[in-house]
Amino acid sequence: MEQENDRWQVKLNGVPLSAMQDKGKWFIYPFFGFHMLMFGLSGFFMSYAEHGPDLFFIYLHGGIAIVVYLIFYRVIFGLDEVRWMLINAALGFLGIYSQLGWLLDKFGKHIEDYPWYVNVTPFLYYVLYTFLLRQFLIDLTGSRGNLARLKWVNALYVTGSLLVYGGMLVRT
C-alpha cells in the first residue's frame, strides 16, 4: 500500500506536496473557501433559477471547476483524504439533501421539484465544501498528526453533522 501511494504522490524537489500543505494551510482554507463559495453560489443559483441556463452550461461551468478542485485536493491533501471525502459523500446524501432542501425552502422552492440531474452540481459543491471544512477542523485542532485527537474530531464532526442534517430534515 505504501508503494502504491508513493507512486501516485506528486513531488516538488523530492518533497511530497501533500506534506507541504502544512506550510500554506492558512492560505489554502480562505482561498479555496472563498473561491468555492463564489463558484458554488453561482452553480446553485444557475441550477435552481426559474429561467436559468441550460443543463449543459451548468455542467460545464461547475464540472470544470469541480475537476480542478479534485486535482488540487489530491495534490494538497493526499489520496487517502480524497478517498475519505468520496466515502463521506456517498454516506452523506441525507445531509446534502436535507440542507439543500432547507436552503431552497428559504427561496420558496422545493428540492423535489427538480429532476435529480439538476441537483448534481450543487451536491458536488456541497461535498467539496464540507471536505474543506473537515480539513480545516483537523488543522485547527492540531489533529493531523495525532491519531487519538483525529478520532475525536472525526466523531465530533460526524455527530454534529447528523444533528444539523436531522434537524434541517425535520424542519423542511
Structural account:
It is a single chain. With about 170 residues, the chain is an all-alpha fold. Helices cover about 80% and strands about 0% of the residues. The protein is built from 7 helices and 2 strands. It has helices at about 1-10, 15-50, 55-75, 80-90, 95-105, 120-140, 145-170, and strands at about 10, 15. It has a two-stranded antiparallel ribbon with strand order 1-2. Helix 2 packs antiparallel against helix 3. The termini are far apart. Mean pLDDT is about 80; it is low at about 1-5.
SSE inventory with pairings:
Layout: H1 2-8, E1 11-12, E2 15-16, H2 17-48, H3 55-77, H4 79-91, H5 93-106, H6 120-140, H7 147-171
Antiparallel strand pairs: 1-2
Helix pairs in contact: 2-3, 2-6, 3-4, 3-6, 5-7
The average pLDDT is: 81
β-sheet strand percentage? under 5%
Q: Please state the CA-atom Rg, rounded to the nearest Å.
A: 17 Å
Strand order across the largest sheet: 1-2
Helix proportion range: over 70%
Number of helices: 7
Name the structural class: mainly alpha
Overall form:
globular
User: Poorly predicted ranges (pLDDT <50, ≥5 residues)?
Assistant: 1-5
Number of strands: 2
Q: Gap between N and C termini, in Å?
A: 44 Å
Largest sheet: 2 strands, antiparallel
SSE pattern, N- to C-terminal: HEEHHHHHH
